[in-house]
Amino acid sequence: MKETIEDQGYLFNTGKSFKSYGFLGCHVQDNGQTMFNVWAPNAKSVALVGDFNDWNDAKLDKVGTTGIWNGSFEGVSPGDLYKFAVTGPNGERNLKIDPYATQFEKKPGDAAVVPSSSNHRWHDGLWLGRRKRSNPSQRPINIYEVHLGSWKRHDDDSYYSYSEMADELIPYVKAMGYSHIELMPIMEHLLDASWGYQQLGYFAVTSRFGKMDDFLNFVDKCHLANIGVIVDWVPGHFIRNYDALYQYDGTPTFEYQDENRANNSRWGAWNFDLGKSQVHSFLISSAMYWIEQCHLDGLRVDAVSNMLYLDYDDGKEGLTNRYGDNHNLEGIEFLQLLNETIHTEHPDTLMIAEESSAYAGVTDSVEQGGLGFDYKWNLGWMHDTLKFFEMDPLYRHDNFNLLTFAFVYMYNEKFILPFSHDEVVHGKKSLMHKMPGDRYNQFANLRTMMTYLMAFPGKKLTFMGSEWGQFLEWRDWSQLEWVDLKDPMNNKMHEFTQLLNQIYHEQRPMWEQDYVPEGLSYTNTDDAESSTMGFIRQGKKKRQFTVAAFNFVPVERQDYRIGVPFAGEYELLLNTEDERFGGTWTKLQTHFVADATPYKGQPASFTVTLPAMGALLIKPINLKSIK
């Protein structure tokens, strides 16, 4: 028997309607009428206004005690603009967006658009089948983070469309060897400078770049090219605009009743009331919509710390829960429910936390008391690594703990190592500009740091432009400095990143055991005085491993001994000082022979010349057992 609006509304109010986009919002019916449903529980009245009625009120009816208002109308056409006129308990009438709109007009307007039926037909069945059969923790994940509005623009500074991005971005990412594209929020937003993190629409792609079918085609083409798609998603807070979700029915509806908890002063936003059952239905339905309707491979959940702590925001010092600590119990329960729900329906979807504190168990299962995420951004590793590489090499030996501290906690969570957009904006300088010394040394440092990123346990993420060492920090209002690639040094850095990505993808030991101690052997991680480091990334097979050695100062180390588990022959995978990449080495030491000389806990060893401010990656090719 078909569910009624009242049945669906009841489920929505229990917080268990995780596909509520199927009935709330705007839906064309089989009889040619268009149905509108909106949740506004405390409103005195709700009306529909739009192009189809000259923006005059067409009243909706309240559906029992559900708090949902409903109406069906003739003469509504795809492309028509509409809003809801909501009269609150105090009699004040305000025009409000449709929270479930799947399309909005182009900025600066914010009216919803009556959608057309989708004509998209998916072609990614093979990709989705492989995704279900794979274990992502034992696969290479190398993410290219992209802000669509500034990756490339036309000569007249207009945006590329989703279709144009499919034609240019996908082949580029494929050629560079990345496994995934992560899009900064492409949900509808009004302010360009918010980069999408101040969301207006939770079910609509931004109209800046085209319509939903264009975006679906983009995702489809990514999958046909064997590239996954992750999108940033913001369930913690929403845009301040009074015609959006704020006091939707004239009272706090989506946000907390307590204005101090509702107000996010740091980001100029309103916090969702994560303890409200209807908000659970709304937000989890949004996540489910992007995963199911758009075939996304993962969601990177923004600002998780703001949902975990009562006192995370400015001016909230001293807020405590019933146990007397600062944990937001409602936020924790919401995140657990979110991840449990997504993984029950789609266990192969990646849920990624951008979480900046030391909260324990972010990637533990909910059954274990954790939050249930698949991965967590390792922001501590990122900050420490960047701080170390920004230093004059003269002082690095005194600050070597910035690198070695991460070895203490690297298995506490399933980490992604991010060099993200946040670190190359607002005066922080680009990755290239952070590096000390003259231009040659900046590139040498950058090559070494990027190799360290690839060798260290954890999945990888880098922001667009870093792959060739763009000097200018990121500007959201302008395309990347593609002209840099005409410069020989930038071009060589570009080639270096391409090869490094290829090596990472092909060398199973560099990703097969990221999250277990068996995946890494220490060979030389405590030599602060020389500012050098060496370790082995171990694959599942005993004889599959990759040797990594690093020199973090501009002093060449001759006869540098490296301990290995087997005697035999080894060959070079990468020398960051290769002239081909902008280094100074014209002749490379490509072949190494390890004998049964024990070193640093390993039964065999060989010596290398470790390049100044450089790194080596080496693999075994013909091993002998040591008797």
What structural keywords apply?
627 residues, alpha/beta, Immunoglobulin-like, eight-stranded parallel barrel, six-stranded antiparallel beta sheet, 15 helices, 24% helix, elongated
Structural notes for this entry:
By secondary structure, this protein is of the alpha/beta class. Among the domains are: about 5-115, Immunoglobulin-like; about 515-625, Golgi alpha-mannosidase II (Immunoglobulin-like, Sandwich). About 25% of the residues lie in helices and about 25% in strands. The chain is built from 15 helices and 28 strands. The strands form six sheets. An eight-stranded parallel barrel has the order 10-11-12-16-17-18-19-20. Strands 21-22-23-28-25-26 form a six-stranded antiparallel β-sheet. β1 and β2 form a beta hairpin. α4 (about 160-175) runs parallel beside α5 and α14 runs parallel beside α15. The termini are far apart. The mean pLDDT is about 95.
Question: Which SSEs are present, and which pair or pack?
Answer:
Layout: H1 5-14, E1 25-28, E2 34-39, E3 45-50, E4 58-59, E5 61-63, E6 68-73, E7 81-87, E8 93-96, E9 112-113, H2 125-133, E10 142-146, H3 148-151, H4 162-176, E11 180-183, H5 212-224, E12 228-233, E13 237-238, H6 259-262, E14 263-264, E15 269-271, H7 277-292, E16 298-301, H8 304-308, H9 329-345, E17 350-353, E18 375-377, H10 379-390, H11 401-404, H12 406-409, E19 415-419, H13 431-434, H14 439-455, E20 459-463, H15 488-506, E21 520-527, E22 532-538, E23 545-551, E24 557-564, E25 567-575, E26 591-594, E27 604-610, E28 614-624
Parallel strand pairs: 10-11, 10-20, 11-12, 12-16, 16-17, 17-18, 18-19, 19-20
Antiparallel strand pairs: 1-2, 2-6, 3-4, 3-7, 5-6, 7-8, 7-9, 13-15, 14-15, 21-22, 22-23, 23-28, 24-27, 25-26, 25-28
Helix pairs in contact: 4-5, 7-9, 14-15
